[in-house]
Amino acid sequence: MSISNVILVVEDELSEVISRQILNQLDIEIRHTIFGKGNVSLRQKAPELNRSANALDIFLLTDLDSPQDCPSGLIQSWIKGSLNPRLLFRVAVMEVESWVMADRVGFSDFLSIPLHRIPSPTDDILNPKEFLVSLARKSQKKRMREALVPVPGANASVGFEYNILLSEFVQDQWDMHRAALVSPSLNRTLERLYQARGIGSD
After folding, report:
1. d(Cα 25, Cα 127) in Å, to the nearest integer?
2. Residue boundaries of the structural domains of the chain
3. pTM value?
4. 115 near 81, Cβ under 8 Å?
5. What proportion of the chain, given as a percentage, has pLDDT over 70?
6. Among the listed residues 155, 148, 151, 114, the one whose alpha carbon sits nearest the alpha carbon of residue 131
7. How far apart are CA 38 and CA 4, in angstroms?
8. pLDDT at 34
9. Mean pLDDT in the chain?
10. Which one is the CATH code of 5-95+182-197: 1.10.3470, 2.40.160, 3.30.1490, 3.40.50?
11. Do 89 and 45 form a contact (C-beta atoms < 8 A)?
12. How far from 105 is each of 7, 44, 154, CA to CA, in Å?
Protein backbone atom coordinates (compact mmCIF):
# COMPACT_ATOMS: atom_id res chain seq x y z
CA MET A 1 0.00 0.00 0.00
CA SER A 2 1.37 3.42 -0.95
CA ILE A 3 1.84 5.86 1.91
CA SER A 4 0.50 9.40 1.59
CA ASN A 5 1.20 10.86 5.02
CA VAL A 6 3.48 10.27 8.00
CA ILE A 7 4.24 11.28 11.54
CA LEU A 8 7.71 12.88 11.41
CA VAL A 9 10.11 12.12 14.27
CA VAL A 10 13.47 13.95 14.43
CA GLU A 11 16.08 15.01 16.95
CA ASP A 12 16.76 18.61 15.93
CA GLU A 13 15.73 21.54 13.76
CA LEU A 14 18.00 20.82 10.81
CA SER A 15 16.83 17.19 10.63
CA GLU A 16 13.25 18.44 10.61
CA VAL A 17 13.88 20.88 7.76
CA ILE A 18 15.68 18.39 5.53
CA SER A 19 13.10 15.66 6.24
CA ARG A 20 10.29 18.05 5.40
CA GLN A 21 12.00 19.02 2.15
CA ILE A 22 12.40 15.38 1.12
CA LEU A 23 8.87 14.35 2.07
CA ASN A 24 7.31 17.38 0.40
CA GLN A 25 9.09 16.63 -2.87
CA LEU A 26 7.69 13.10 -2.77
CA ASP A 27 4.16 14.40 -2.03
CA ILE A 28 4.10 12.80 1.41
CA GLU A 29 2.12 14.91 3.86
CA ILE A 30 3.40 15.42 7.42
CA ARG A 31 0.53 14.99 9.84
CA HIS A 32 2.48 15.87 12.97
CA THR A 33 6.10 16.37 14.03
CA ILE A 34 7.70 14.95 17.18
CA PHE A 35 11.02 16.39 18.35
CA GLY A 36 13.06 13.93 20.38
CA LYS A 37 15.37 16.59 21.88
CA GLY A 38 18.44 14.60 21.00
CA ASN A 39 19.60 11.12 20.12
CA VAL A 40 19.05 9.63 23.58
CA SER A 41 15.43 10.78 23.72
CA LEU A 42 14.70 9.31 20.28
CA ARG A 43 16.26 6.02 21.30
CA GLN A 44 13.94 5.84 24.30
CA LYS A 45 10.90 6.52 22.10
CA ALA A 46 11.85 4.05 19.35
CA PRO A 47 10.22 0.83 20.69
CA GLU A 48 6.91 2.60 21.28
CA LEU A 49 7.08 4.23 17.84
CA ASN A 50 7.67 0.80 16.34
CA ARG A 51 4.47 -0.44 18.01
CA SER A 52 2.53 2.69 17.04
CA ALA A 53 3.40 2.11 13.40
CA ASN A 54 0.78 -0.68 13.34
CA ALA A 55 -1.81 2.08 12.98
CA LEU A 56 0.03 4.84 11.11
CA ASP A 57 3.14 5.50 9.04
CA ILE A 58 6.11 7.07 10.81
CA PHE A 59 9.29 8.59 9.35
CA LEU A 60 12.11 8.68 11.91
CA LEU A 61 15.47 10.28 11.13
CA THR A 62 18.51 10.18 13.38
CA ASP A 63 22.29 10.52 13.02
CA LEU A 64 24.75 7.65 13.09
CA ASP A 65 27.27 9.76 15.07
CA SER A 66 29.86 7.01 15.68
CA PRO A 67 32.00 5.39 12.95
CA GLN A 68 31.99 2.23 15.07
CA ASP A 69 28.27 1.81 14.37
CA CYS A 70 26.38 0.95 11.19
CA PRO A 71 22.81 1.99 10.33
CA SER A 72 21.34 -1.52 10.55
CA GLY A 73 23.07 -2.15 13.87
CA LEU A 74 21.83 1.14 15.30
CA ILE A 75 18.26 0.38 14.22
CA GLN A 76 18.38 -3.08 15.76
CA SER A 77 19.82 -1.78 19.03
CA TRP A 78 17.04 0.81 19.28
CA ILE A 79 14.10 -1.39 18.27
CA LYS A 80 15.23 -4.61 20.00
CA GLY A 81 13.01 -6.75 17.79
CA SER A 82 11.44 -6.79 14.35
CA LEU A 83 11.23 -3.45 12.59
CA ASN A 84 7.66 -2.56 11.70
CA PRO A 85 7.54 -1.97 7.91
CA ARG A 86 5.43 1.13 8.53
CA LEU A 87 8.22 2.69 10.60
CA LEU A 88 10.51 4.29 8.03
CA PHE A 89 13.58 4.38 10.28
CA ARG A 90 16.40 6.21 8.49
CA VAL A 91 19.95 7.01 9.62
CA ALA A 92 22.07 9.87 8.26
CA VAL A 93 25.74 8.89 8.01
CA MET A 94 27.42 10.41 9.94
CA GLU A 95 25.12 13.38 10.63
CA VAL A 96 22.40 15.20 8.76
CA GLU A 97 25.03 17.80 7.82
CA SER A 98 26.45 15.10 5.53
CA TRP A 99 23.21 15.28 3.55
CA VAL A 100 23.29 19.08 3.49
CA MET A 101 26.84 19.20 2.11
CA ALA A 102 26.15 16.35 -0.34
CA ASP A 103 24.67 18.87 -2.76
CA ARG A 104 28.25 19.91 -3.37
CA VAL A 105 27.43 22.28 -6.23
CA GLY A 106 24.72 24.07 -4.27
CA PHE A 107 26.64 24.18 -1.01
CA SER A 108 29.90 25.43 -2.53
CA ASP A 109 27.93 28.26 -4.11
CA PHE A 110 26.09 28.93 -0.85
CA LEU A 111 29.33 29.26 1.12
CA SER A 112 31.31 30.71 -1.79
CA ILE A 113 34.08 28.13 -1.50
CA PRO A 114 35.76 25.96 -4.17
CA LEU A 115 33.86 22.77 -5.00
CA HIS A 116 36.91 20.57 -4.37
CA ARG A 117 36.88 21.48 -0.67
CA ILE A 118 33.76 19.33 -0.21
CA PRO A 119 34.73 15.63 -0.36
CA SER A 120 32.72 12.89 -2.01
CA PRO A 121 31.11 10.84 -0.58
CA THR A 122 30.17 13.14 2.27
CA ASP A 123 29.17 10.10 4.37
CA ASP A 124 32.91 9.51 4.87
CA ILE A 125 33.34 12.77 6.81
CA LEU A 126 33.78 11.67 10.43
CA ASN A 127 32.63 14.93 12.08
CA PRO A 128 30.35 16.63 9.55
CA LYS A 129 29.21 19.51 11.78
CA GLU A 130 32.79 20.36 12.72
CA PHE A 131 33.87 20.01 9.09
CA LEU A 132 31.04 22.26 7.90
CA VAL A 133 32.10 24.96 10.35
CA SER A 134 35.69 24.64 9.09
CA LEU A 135 34.41 25.22 5.56
CA ALA A 136 32.48 28.28 6.72
CA ARG A 137 35.70 29.75 8.16
CA LYS A 138 37.06 29.79 4.59
CA SER A 139 33.95 31.38 3.08
CA GLN A 140 34.42 34.53 1.04
CA LYS A 141 31.13 35.78 2.47
CA LYS A 142 31.51 37.62 5.77
CA ARG A 143 27.86 36.90 6.52
CA MET A 144 28.49 33.14 6.41
CA ARG A 145 31.58 33.34 8.59
CA GLU A 146 29.77 35.39 11.22
CA ALA A 147 26.61 33.26 11.18
CA LEU A 148 28.05 29.73 11.10
CA VAL A 149 31.34 30.01 13.00
CA PRO A 150 31.25 30.35 16.81
CA VAL A 151 32.79 33.49 18.24
CA PRO A 152 36.17 33.06 19.98
CA GLY A 153 35.75 31.86 23.55
CA ALA A 154 32.17 30.70 23.06
CA ASN A 155 31.06 27.37 24.52
CA ALA A 156 28.93 26.66 21.44
CA SER A 157 30.38 24.53 18.65
CA VAL A 158 28.54 26.48 15.93
CA GLY A 159 27.57 30.07 15.19
CA PHE A 160 24.41 31.63 16.58
CA GLU A 161 22.62 31.54 13.20
CA TYR A 162 23.79 28.06 12.22
CA ASN A 163 20.34 26.44 12.06
CA ILE A 164 18.71 29.49 10.51
CA LEU A 165 21.17 29.79 7.61
CA LEU A 166 21.41 26.07 6.89
CA SER A 167 17.61 25.71 7.03
CA GLU A 168 17.30 28.53 4.49
CA PHE A 169 19.80 26.77 2.24
CA VAL A 170 17.90 23.47 2.42
CA GLN A 171 14.56 25.16 1.72
CA ASP A 172 15.74 27.42 -1.10
CA GLN A 173 18.76 25.86 -2.81
CA TRP A 174 19.40 22.25 -1.76
CA ASP A 175 18.89 19.69 -4.52
CA MET A 176 18.13 16.28 -3.01
CA HIS A 177 18.79 14.43 -6.28
CA ARG A 178 22.29 15.90 -6.65
CA ALA A 179 22.88 15.20 -2.97
CA ALA A 180 21.79 11.57 -3.28
CA LEU A 181 24.56 10.99 -5.81
CA VAL A 182 27.14 11.97 -3.19
CA SER A 183 25.60 10.56 0.04
CA PRO A 184 24.86 6.80 -0.01
CA SER A 185 22.78 7.03 3.17
CA LEU A 186 20.59 9.74 1.62
CA ASN A 187 20.26 7.70 -1.56
CA ARG A 188 19.10 4.67 0.47
CA THR A 189 16.55 6.87 2.23
CA LEU A 190 15.13 8.13 -1.06
CA GLU A 191 14.97 4.58 -2.45
CA ARG A 192 13.05 3.46 0.65
CA LEU A 193 10.63 6.35 0.31
CA TYR A 194 10.10 5.68 -3.41
CA GLN A 195 9.31 2.08 -2.49
CA ALA A 196 6.88 3.20 0.20
CA ARG A 197 5.18 5.56 -2.24
CA GLY A 198 4.95 2.78 -4.82
CA ILE A 199 6.83 4.77 -7.46
CA GLY A 200 10.12 4.38 -9.29
CA SER A 201 13.19 6.47 -8.50
CA ASP A 202 13.41 7.92 -12.01
Report:
1. 28
2. 5-95+182-197, 98-178
3. 0.95
4. no
5. 98
6. 148
7. 27
8. 96
9. 95
10. 3.40.50
11. no
12. 31, 37, 31
